[in-house]
Amino acid sequence: MSTLPTTVRVVEVGPRDGLQNEREIVPTATKIAFIKALAAAGLKQIEATSFVNPKIIPKLSDASEVIAGLPRLDQVVFSALVPNERGLDRAIASGVKRIAIFTAASETFAQKNIGVTIEKSLEEYERVCTRASEAGISIRGYVSTAFVCPFEGNIDPSRVRDISKRLMNMGADEVAISDTIGAAVPTDVVRTLEIVAKSVSVGKIALHFHDTYGTALVNVLAGLQFGVTTFDSSAGGLGGCPFAPGASGNLATEDLVYTMHRMGIDTDVSLDGVVQAAELIARTINRPLASAGWRRWKGSSQSGCGQTCAST
Ligand code: MG
User: Fold this and answer.
1) Distance (Å) from CA 301 to ligand 1 centroid
2) What contacts 39, CB < 8 A, 6 or more positions away?
3) The CATH number of the domain where 179 resides is what?
């Protein structure tokens, strides 16, 4: 354990990856309040929204208003997902300083999720990245279904490596290797990192896990042991993926932060602050959230069997 990092960077994706995949529509003002609360909790990288086609994802059609409603904070970077040049036009107009582009390691998933081949998506992103860089906007790349695809099964790590390299070469400063359906286990994580890290330095790799099978945190540990120090998570464990059958929520920020702190790893994030931010959404969608942290801190008033427990 002595080789573990002393600090990790948490990239909060709840307002985008989380809310995009919740059934209920969250009002714009609540989204803005949620994002402000996340920043107040100490999160410094927050993916606030997505400039996807509003006809495809109406829930995020208020992307420009959300960005306009956020304060300018020296320490916090708000970013937005951008699927194509049209999305970039809206992103530039909004004044956002960081964008995220996304493609998949699985051809079938790419065509179902973004409607084009991986190659076509990369060609579009070449143009998006050139224009974003000219506008002074920094770029994060996502490789989704990087470990397991719901349609194609196990993904060859060399595909993840090749796509990651392309995204970095076109101007991304970080690539998020993403377990979109939450099916990966630590051996998948290590196998993939061993190949990808030959082409992309470990400091530029982020890991994005979903908790479908409860393996997100053990996957984080595998990443930490490999030297990865950036992890994506979503307050309250919000999210899923409408194009990935069976995907449940993202790794919950409070579960990640709790575990890091207990391991002596600093995140600069307040656990209480994250739970308070998540509460804004829980109230709006009117149901308890899925994370272990949420049940522990918010559900405790309803728990207890009322009998003497000789638990072990
Ligand atoms: Mg995701």
Assistant:
1) 31
2) 46, 71, 73, 76
3) 3.20.20.70
Three-state secondary-structure class, residue 65: helix
The separation between CA 275 and the C-alpha centre of its own chain, rounded to angstroms, equals 17
Q: Can you give the residue range of the structural domain that contains 126?
A: 9-302
CA angle 183, 186, 192 (to 5 degrees): 85
Phi, psi angle pair for 78, to nearest 5°: -95, 135
Residue 103 has pLDDT above 70, yes or no: yes
Residues with CB under 5 A from ligand 1 (ion): 17
Considering 129, 149, 241, 309, which one is annotated as catalytic? 241
Q: 183 alpha carbon to ligand 1 midpoint, in Å?
A: 12
How many structural domains is the chain composed of?
1
Q: Which two tokens stand for residue 206?
A: 């982020």
Residue 45 lies in a domain: yes
**pLDDT tens, position by position, 147-185:** 999 899 999 999 999 999 999 999 999 999 999 989 999
Q: Is residue 154 part of a domain?
A: yes
Query: How far apart, in whole angstroms, are the C-alpha atoms of residue 4 and residue 83?
Result: 35
CA 286 – CA 106 distance, rounded (Å): 35
User: In this structure, is residue 309 part of a structural domain?
Assistant: no
Give 302 Cα–ligand 1 centroid separation in angstroms: 30
Catalytic, 241? Answer yes
Residue 294 confidence class, pLDDT cut points 50, 70, 90: confident
Single-letter amino acid code for the residue at 42: G
Q: How far is the CA of 210 from the centre of ligand 1 (A)?
A: 7
- 2 Cα: distance to centroid of ligand 1 (angstroms): 30
CA of 123 to the centre of ligand 1 (A): 22
Classify residue 18: in a domain, yes or no.
yes
HSE-CB at 198 with a 13 A cutoff on CA atoms is 11
